[in-house]
Amino acid sequence: MIRPPAFQFFVNDWLSSLKITMMTPAEEGAYIRLLCYAWADPDVSIPDDDETLARISRLGEQWLKGSSTTLRACFVPHPKKSGRLVNARLLQEHKRQQQWRAKCRAGGIQSGKTRAWELKGSSRVVEVKANRTVEVNGNSSSSSSVNSSKKRKYILPETCSGKNGHFPGFDIFWAAYPRKE
Question: pTM score, two decimals?
Fold first, then answer.
């Protein structure tokens, strides 16, 4: 799965945080850098190593002269990996994004299934049920004309029988929209 490129930054939470207010400008800059490094990591974590943290925070020797205490207070040990630190709030935001992506993905899949069965040139939809006869109104308009009462029957395949396990006709669709490199 693609890593999300950004995390939400709650300005009011940042500005009203006493912990951040008590930081020097250099420590505040180092903190946001450490959060960025954590976000870029697959585990949303940073190494629990003073030399590495001094370098990636860009504090250098100032890290060892007291800034490490201030900044380490913003991180806790990783719940599963030893030698790694996580920011609890950032980890929570990462989990929220994962849940949101999963929800959107499921909705997209369902929407795609529904649209896959739309009849060309109309808004009529065939109910997706394998190996069943499905009836669809012959006319999608809401008028009370004689045509609106006609029904058509469609036999849906039990499984995908097209090339590469796709529905029949998918290869024609796929060829019409070549991938961009």
Answer: 0.59
